[in-house]
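The protein record filed below.
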Amino acid sequence: MELRVLRYFLAVVDTGSMTAAAVRVHVAQPSISRQLRSLERELGAELLRRTSSGVRLTAAGRRFVPVARDLTLRAARGTELLQAVAGRSPLQFRVACPNSTITHLVAPFVAEMGGPFTDARSCEPDQVYERLRAGDVDIGISTGPPPGGMATRRLGARRISAQVPAGHPLEQGGGDLDLASLLDHPVIVSSRASAVRRALDTALYEQGTPLRPAFEPQSASMAQALAAAGHGVCVVVDHPQFDLRARALTSQDRPLIISLYAGWDPDHYAHDEIDAATRDLSKWLMANDGGRQPGSRPTPAGPHHSPGPDPGA
């Protein structure tokens, strides 16, 4: 069983036709068809059913798809490892995480620190570890810990804030804001699937007060836009935009937060390097108070700045 033929098979699966697969892999269509027939004879099962409208997977083909993906992925990872060990290429890791985590954590970290993260793929929090199990990525970052059996690190926490336009009553006073203060205003918060909403619901449940949001947009940016338009108070972990003012929320004198966790395969060929990379990411997250405004960089020291002697020396 040749990896090259497995890639042809997956190209047919992904494109839905022999002709489109041939274009993708730059091989003549009759050659692909012939080699896939040979693969079927080798396996003793029909994988693809040829029809006038294209091809479709048989029951055996559907069961073989994840096997073929796993084999080709492991081969690619093995090549990456050997090239990295030989010094011909750096280690490169792919990350799956919610879009907000890309915007406020992964992308700013890479911009400032470099590091081995070369791709970040956006998905819902409850899909992160599924993407990891499927082999699409090397690391998953989500608001809940990974399932048992995975290597994990708690990266840190991000504070949840209430954001309002200038002049709003909740802007007054500054400092942290108790969660109970929100209940006299229309609340804009994402759906129950989000970590922010779950944290909010849990905190209010402990106080015996159910939440009835005025709006439940899926996008944090849309929640901020609605708040800026005067429709209520948005509750998010994202940095303010649209000139909103933010006040960090507390509940029963405790900061309202969401935690971030990284998970990866403990048998990953670069387990030690991933462990070190997530440690660096955790340190950066804590040093930057839960993330950074999109597009921003740390303020550089002045040209004449120097740390100076330790006054206690």
